[in-house]
Amino acid sequence: QLQLVESGGGLVQPGGSLRLSCAASGFTLDYYAIGWFRQAPGKEREGVSCISSSDGRTYYEASVKGRFTISRDNAKNTVYLQMNSLKPDDTAVYYCAARPRGYYCSGYPGDFASWGQGTQVTISS
What we know:
- Strands 2, 4, 5, 6, 9, 10 and 11 form a seven-stranded mixed beta sheet that branches.
- The chain is mostly beta strands.
- The chain has no helices and eleven strands.
- The chain is about 0% helix and about 45% strand.
- It has strands at about 5, 10, 20-25, 35-40, 45-50, 60, 70-75, 80-85, 90-100, 115, 120-125.
């Protein structure tokens, strides 16, 4: 059974940093494209970043480009999202998700089959 567990969320001041982790169990994570999504209250879930399975290519939503970095540690079966220069608009529940094996990265939540439970990120002074 594919399972994803996010951790690392919290409350930080604007300009601060957080590193989110997405740990996988039941499957080898590097065979799957893994995406990070976020959902703020009253808003739709949106794609933040994605890392492909085949070549490790990375993708970022425009508002986080240059501030967020997605990476993969195959030995730990974990994907990370390093978030720097955080802004109040980054406040949301962050989720990681896996596409079905063999598919490329996507920014659409409907393309992902397996989801974690989410971790809250709050940016406030």
